[in-house]
Amino acid sequence: MPKILFQQRQLLLLLAVGASCFLTEVEPQLYILALCMALLLGLLIRSVVAASSLGTQLRLPWGIPALLATVFVALCLASTSTSVMPTTSWWFAWILSAQMIAFLVWRSLAHGYATWRTIDNGLSLILATLSIWAIAEFLETAWRANGPFLDYNAFGALLYLLIVPQIATIIGESKNEKSGLAWCSSALGILALFTTQSRGATAVFLLASLVLALAALRSNTFNKRAALKLAALSVAAYTFSKLYPATLSFRPLDLASDPSTSYRLMMWKSAWQAFLDHPWTGTGLGTYKLEYLHYRLPTEIGSSGDLAHCDYIQLLMEGGPILLAALLAWGIYVAALAKRLWNKLNEPNIDSETRRKSISAFALLIAVLGLFLHAAVNFIFYVLPISIIAGLYIAQAQTALKNTPPKKIDLGIHPIFAAAIPSTLVALCTLGMLIDWGGSISLNNAYKFDFIEKRLQDPTTRYRLARLILAARPNHVSAHEVATKAATDLALENGGDALGVAWAEIALDEAKDWQASSRGNPFVLFHTGQLLWRYPSLQSAMSPDFPDRPDLLFKAAIDRYHNFASAYLVAARYYEDQNAPQDAFQVLASGLPWMRLPVPNGETVIEWQKLLREGRRLAELLKEAKLPPELKAAQDEFLSLDFNAGH
C-alpha cells in the first residue's frame, strides 16, 4: 500500500503538469494529459483493491491552517454559482483551490503512509525534464523559453519553485554528503530559468537564494564551497542566456520605459473597473477573458487578454473581496510559518539533523513566499502545477515542525469503502475534466486528424457532436458556440424554405442557451444578429434574451468588444443592405480608433484589411472630398500587409 501511495503522489505532480496544457492547447500536451488521467484512474483502482491495510480510520488535518484551506476551497466552489461562465469557473476553481487541496491531502498522508523523500526525488526529476525541454527550446528557437506548458514568466516561477529547495539541500549539506541529483537538477534548472528571460522570476530566485544563504549561516549549516559553486554556475548560466544567440534582444531593465509595464498598468485599471461594477461577488472565476473585452482600454495593445498579470487584482475582479481576503490570510499563515522556522534555526540544543530538516522546510516556504511576491505582477496561482506543488510544500513545512498529527476518525465501515470514497470523488472530478477537455479539442479545428476534420466540415455532423457534448456537460460554452454556428449554417444553406426556418429557430434556441452559459459574450450577439438579419421572422422570438433588431445586436457586440473587426464589417454590410451607406461608413470609421496590431496575426489583420477596403469603397461611393486622417493612416499601415493573397 505505501508503494501505491508513493506512486499516487508522484502521479499527482505529473497530472498537474499535464493538466496545465488546458491553458495553451498544444496537441502533444493534450496527449500527455490524457495519459496522466488514465494512469491516475488505474492507480485509484489499485488503491481500492489494496485498501484493507487502511482500516476504518481516516486521518484528517486539524487546526487553523486546515480551517483556512477548507474555507478557501469552499469559497472557490461557491463562487461558481455567480459566474457567467459555469464550466470555465469550475475549472478555475479547481486550479486556485488545488494549493489548499494538495495541502490537506499531504497533511493527511504524511503521518504514517508516505515520506517526503519520494516526493523530493520526483520533483528533482520533473525539474530536470522541464529544464532540458526549456534549454532545447531556447537553442532551437533563439528566443525566450516558455517550456512545454506555460508562458515565459509562469514557467520561470515553476522553475524557481523547484530549484530553491534543491539549493537548500546543496548549501546546507555537510562535506561528506553530496546530492548528485540535486546538483544535476539545479544546474539544469538555473540555466533553464535564465533562458525564460523573466525578470520577475530571476529577481525572486536571487532574493530567495540570498535568504537561504542567511538562514544557513544562522543555523551553522552553511557550506561555503557549495555556495560559491552555485554562484559561479548562476553567473555562467546568465551570461550564456544573454550571449547566445547574439541576435536575442536584451529585455530592458528600466521598467518605466518597458511597454509591458505600461500595458500591465492599463490591464489592472480595466480589471479594477470591472470589480467596481461587481463589488461583492465578482464576475465569477475564469471570466476575466470575457469581461476584459468590455473593459479593455483602446491603448492597451500588448496582451492577449487571457489573464490580468496580477493574481490579486484578477481574483478581486473574479471572486470578490472575500475570496481575495481568504487568499491573503493563507499567505499570512505561510509567512508566519516561515517566521517560526527562522526562529527555530537558531535555537540552542538542537541536533544537526533537526537543523538540516528545518532549513529544508524553510526553503520550501521561501519558494512559496516568492510565488506570493511574483503573483503581484504576473499570473502564478492561476497555473495548476504551481498551485499543487506550493500546497505540498506548505504541508511538508508544517509537518517538519512536528505539529500534532491529523486526527483519526473511525468511519465504522468496511475498509474498502473507506478507501473507495475519496477515490471515487477524485475519479469523478477527473472524468469531468476529461469530458471538458475532450469536448473542447473535438470542436477545435486545430486538433483534428484529416479524416475527422473532413467529416466535421459538415454542419449537421458538427451540430450532432455539440449536442452530444452538451448532454454530458450542459454548460460547455464551446459546445454551445458550435451548436449555434452549425445550426445557423444549416439555416443559411436551406435559404428561406421551411427547413431553413426550422433550423433558424433551432439556432436561436441554441444562441439563447449559449447566452445563458456565457452572459454578455459578444460573439453570441454577433452571430444572433446575422441570424436575425437573414430571418426577420425570428424578431418576435428574440425577447427577452436579445434586442429585436440586427443593428442593435451588432452594436451590442461592438460595445462589448471594441476591436471586433468582423462585427464592424458585418454591421456596415447590413446598413448597405438597408440602403443606408452613410450609416455603413460611420460604423466602419468608428472602428478605426480601436484598431491595434500588437502581433502580426494574419487572421486579425485580414479582417481589418477588409474593413479598410470597404471603408475606402464607401468613401468613394459617397463622394467624400478626402478620406478621414485616421482612415488614411490605417491604410498605410494595414493595406500593405499581405497575409492572404486572396484578400
Mean pLDDT: 76
Strand order of the largest sheet: 1-2
The proportion of residues in beta strands is: under 5%
What kind of sheet is the major sheet?
Answer: 2 strands, antiparallel
| String of helices and strands | HHEHHHHHHHHHHHHEHHHHHHHHHHH
Number of discrete helical segments = 25
How many β strands by DSSP?
A: 2
State the secondary-structure class: mainly alpha
The backbone outline, from C-alpha atoms, is elongated
Q: What is Rg?
A: 28 Å
Weakly predicted, low-confidence segments: 1-9, 19-27, 174-178, 597-601, 641-647
* Span of the ends, CA to CA: 64 Å
The helix content, as a percent range, equals 55-70%
Could you explain the architecture of this structure?
- The chain has 647 residues and is an all-alpha fold.
- Helix content is 69%, strand content 1%.
- The chain has 25 helices and two strands.
- The chain has helices at residues 2-19, 27-49, 64-79, 86-109, 116-141, 152-171, 180-195, 199-218, 224-243, 259-277, 288-295, 311-344, 352-374, 384-400, 415-442, 450-455, 459-472, 477-493, 498-517, 522-534, 550-560, 565-577, 581-590, 602-621, 629-638, and strands at 57-60, 407-410.
- It has a two-stranded antiparallel sheet with strand order 1-2.
- α24 (602-621) crosses α25.
- The longest helix is centred in the middle third of the chain and has 34 residues, at 311-344.
- The radius of gyration is 28 Å and the shape is elongated.
- The chain starts with a helix and ends in a 9-residue tail after the last helix.
